[in-house]
Predict the 3D structure of the following.
Amino acid sequence: MSLLEGTQYRFLRTIAGKTWKDKVPYTDLINQLSHYNANFEWAHEGTNKGVSITAVETFCRLARLRYAGHVARMTDARIPKILLYGEVNAGQRKPGRPKKSFREGLKEDLKAFNLWEKYQKTGSFEQIVATRDQWRSTINQNAQAFQRNWELNRKNKSNLRKEIK
C-alpha cells in the first residue's frame, strides 16, 4: 500500500506543480486538488460530479467492499461466488504465514469501515449487501468517515514528528 501511496503522492505533486523540496504534506495535496479546478471543466460538461481524490487505501478498501457486495448478490452457481466461499482442501502449504486471502482483506475492510459489528449481528454478509443501493450508500458514507479519520491521523503523526525535532 505504501508504494501506491508514494506513487499517488508523486503524481499529485506533479499535477499541483510542486516538488519534494516544497515539503507539501500528502493530505494538503489531496485537499488542494479535491476542490473544483477550472482546468478540468471539459471533463464535467453536462454533469455535476467533481473530481474526488482520496487516499489509495480508502479507494482500494471501497473497491474491495463494492466488489464483494456484487459477488455476494450473485447466484450460488457463479464461479466468483464459489471462489469467494470456497476452501482449498488439497496440497501442502509453504512454511511461514500464508499470504492474505481476499476474505481476510474483506474482514479488515469491514472493521476499518465500522461494519464488522453489523456483520456479526446479522451473521451473514449476504443479508447486509442484499439491497444494492443501501449497501453502496452505506459503504460510501463509511468511506468518507474513514478518509476523514485517515487524514486526521496522518496530520497528527506529522505534528508529533515535528514536535520531536
Q: What stands out?
A: Residues 29 and 114 are 27 Å apart (CA to CA). The mean pLDDT is 82.
